From TrEMBL:
<dbReference type="GO" id="GO:0016020">
    <property type="term" value="C:membrane"/>
</dbReference>
<feature type="transmembrane region" description="Helical">
    <location>
        <begin position="17"/>
        <end position="40"/>
    </location>
</feature>
<keyword id="KW-0812">Transmembrane</keyword>
<dbReference type="GO" id="GO:0000155">
    <property type="term" value="F:phosphorelay sensor kinase activity"/>
</dbReference>
<dbReference type="GO" id="GO:0005524">
    <property type="term" value="F:ATP binding"/>
</dbReference>
<dbReference type="InterPro" id="IPR050482">
    <property type="entry name" value="Sensor_HK_TwoCompSys"/>
</dbReference>
<keyword id="KW-0902">Two-component regulatory system</keyword>
<keyword id="KW-0808">Transferase</keyword>
<dbReference type="InterPro" id="IPR011712">
    <property type="entry name" value="Sig_transdc_His_kin_sub3_dim/P"/>
</dbReference>
<dbReference type="Pfam" id="PF07730">
    <property type="entry name" value="HisKA_3"/>
</dbReference>
<feature type="transmembrane region" description="Helical">
    <location>
        <begin position="47"/>
        <end position="69"/>
    </location>
</feature>
<keyword id="KW-0472">Membrane</keyword>
<keyword id="KW-0067">ATP-binding</keyword>
<keyword id="KW-1133">Transmembrane helix</keyword>
<dbReference type="InterPro" id="IPR036890">
    <property type="entry name" value="HATPase_C_sf"/>
</dbReference>
<dbReference type="Pfam" id="PF02518">
    <property type="entry name" value="HATPase_c"/>
</dbReference>
<dbReference type="GO" id="GO:0046983">
    <property type="term" value="F:protein dimerization activity"/>
</dbReference>
Length: 346
């Protein structure tokens, strides 16, 4: 379509110049030139331009008025044969006109530029398509790695649970069996001092067994949670929002604290979806010298009607559990800002 418009504009300019400059300008030549050159767009075959060039040559021999349409011939030849368009300058020898010669040169140059730009655009499109394909492939591979990572974590958790179960069985089984034997032997003890000593020993064994159980349960809950990856998953679920995570934490965070942080982030992002009328949301988690800061900020124009909704209240309760600081404010968007002191979350 672009080529047809350019050709039509060139035809109008040449026809206007023809009728203004030539004596006895013929409307038939103008109409025939229109039919000849615009019929080329009906076929993509390259030899149609050669046929049109032959017809143009015969027509030029019959009437010099055709000299005014040489730039249009140059335009058509340049579009199909590129460098061979220079050969069309030979037609100007029939009746040299500086303005027409210059116009032919400009037309050929413009066509070269257009075709060069088209080639670059086509190449850019190929590169863009290839990059898109590579990006999709990388995403699939990344997802596979994440799945494998989660699978490894799950299997490691199962192995750890099995180990803890064995440890509990060994430790508790030994404590209970020895305690049972001790209880059975108490019925034969007559000495009060020996009885107290045996009961004290029994108490120690039972306490030791209970300590083993507590330790095993403690290790059971220390399974690995990748806090950053979990929050990134939440951010991906925020489409069509423009969601970004800024994470800068090196300290070890306990299992329960991770769960609570995830709960806060999840609740805050849910509030953004439901109430904020925002287009973007950012989550900042940064470790400072003595504390950890967590901020969830959106660019919504709507200020929350109630500062003590159930979602915000539950966040406050979680933060209070660690003696942290909970703040909310509206300035170019709604922000939840939380400070958790390291002493409280270790």
């Amino acid at each position: 379509m672009r080529v047809i418009i350019e050709k039509l504009l060139l035809y109008i300019v040449l026809t206007g110049f023809y009728f203004a400059d030539a004596e006895g300008a013929s409307l038939i030549i103008a109409l025939f030139a229109f039919i000849l050159f615009f019929s080329l767009d009906l076929s993509e075959h390259r030899f149609t331009v050669l046929a049109a060039t032959g017809i143009f040559t015969l027509s030029l021999l019959l009437g010099t008025g055709w000299i005014y349409y040489v730039p249009l011939l140059s335009f058509s030849v340049a579009g199909r044969y590129r460098k061979w368009a220079i050969a069309t300058f030979i037609f100007h020898l029939a009746e040299p006109k500086i303005s027409l010669i210059m116009l032919s040169g400009i037309v050929i140059y413009m066509v070269y530029l257009r075709e060069g730009m088209s080639s670059l655009e086509l190449e850019n499109k190929k590169v863009r398509d290839q990059l898109t394909s590579d990006n999709l492939l990388l995403r699939r591979q990344h997802n596979e790695l994440l799945k494998n990572h989660e699978k490894d974590i799950y299997m490691a958790g199962l192995n750890e649970r099995n180990r803890i179960a064995r440890d509990m069985h060994d430790a508790l089984g030994h404590s209970l069996s020895s305690s049972i034997l001790l209880i059975e032997s108490l019925q034969y003890v007559r000495d009060e001092e020996k009885l107290k000593e045996s009961l004290s020993l029994l108490q120690g064994r039972l306490k030791s067994g209970m300590d083993d159980i507590r330790m095993s349960i403690h290790h059971l809950y220390e399974t690995s949670i990748d806090l950053k990856s979990r929050i990134e998953d939440y951010m991906e679920e925020m489409e069509p929002f423009d969601a970004e995570l800024y994470y800068d934490v090196d300290m070890e965070i306990g299992h329960e604290v991770k769960i609570d942080i995830l709960s806060i982030v999840k609740e805050a992002l849910t509030n953004v979806k439901k109430h904020s009328k925002a287009s973007e949301v950012n989550v900042f988690i940064k470790e400072q010298n003595d504390f950890l800061t967590l901020s969830i900020k959106d660019n919504g124009s709507r200020k929350p009607e109630q500062s003590k909704g159930m979602g915000l209240l539950s966040m406050r309760e979680i933060v209070a559990k660690y003696s942290g600081i909970f703040n909310t404010f509206h300035d170019g968007g709604f922000t939840v800002h939380i400070t958790l002191y390291k002493e409280g979350i270790r």
